[in-house]
Amino acid sequence: MTEPHTTGFDGFLKDFAENVGKFHKAANVLAGIRNEDIDVGATPKTLVLRRDKVELFQYEPTAERTVETSVLMIYGLIGRYTIADLQSDRSLVRGLLSRGIDLWLIDWGRPGRGERWLTMDDYVDDYIHEAVQRICRDTGHDKVTLLGICEGGVFTTCYAALHPEKVKNLVLTVTPIDFHADIDDPAAHHGLLNIWTRSLAPEDIDRMVDTLGVIPGEFMGSIFSLMTPMRSLTKYNVDLIDIVGDKDKLMKFLRMEKWLADRPDHPGAAGRQWLKELYQENRLVEGRFELSGRPQLRPRKRRRIGRVRACR
What we know:
Layout: H1 8-31, E1 45-51, E2 54-59, E3 71-74, E4 85-87, E5 90-91, H2 92-98, E6 103-107, H3 120-139, E7 144-149, H4 151-162, E8 167-173, H5 181-184, H6 192-199, H7 202-212, E9 214-215, H8 217-227, H9 229-243, H10 247-261, E10 266-267, H11 268-280, E11 290-291, E12 294-295
Parallel strand pairs: 3-6, 3-7, 7-8
Antiparallel strand pairs: 1-2, 2-6, 4-5, 9-10, 11-12
Helix pairs in contact: 3-4, 7-11
């Protein structure tokens, strides 16, 4: 027999009681989960080199090596590399290792005011170059494959342009190259991030960097939250309550939230270049971006390489 549909005040009371029960269950489940249980970036790796706050790791192999050239994975300064290694069944890192790839990683650490003067020149021509040289020395090869993700893809693109003799392959994902691609294409969606960065007055960028020494991670996190406002408003009071009874779904949710909340500060001088010279002036694709006094290679023909996508 079909249960009669409850309407009016009785229906409200029934829904309220059900939601209270869900909240009570969610509170009990979450109370039993510790921070260390939400283990992002857990694939085993060995520290090979540390300089300042930057660390070079080599991942432990999980399969017989099938690819001769080692791969160096580089994420950006805006977030953390752990997005590529959230959990065992959602891990780019584990996927590459399972295919017999010798995988290395640069972890930028947590920059602060002490790194306020570090520019993209330092990250590309110093830290990345030293890591590449160390990998070549340890493996006996003279080149590496660079896997650049998000802002790290811009770094690896610049490195490949300045040091082509050290790069066997260049692989990019969610990497902005033409920062004005959406302007050139009338059908393209501009996106909040593009609109926001172009609306900033250059002197306001200078004031923030000069005052704080960094672009605060919390500040950038709030900008990314505004890109999906309704999702940001409802995920804790709707989505979380609905999945709390499923441990696997709950842990996936919490691991993603841990990564989103782990937003390091961005070094000021490099952030100034990122916002002004790339996002606002689009110097990279136009061949006007310089690192260490050297311009990047100018494209033979101006063409759309890809739309700018947000690195969250």
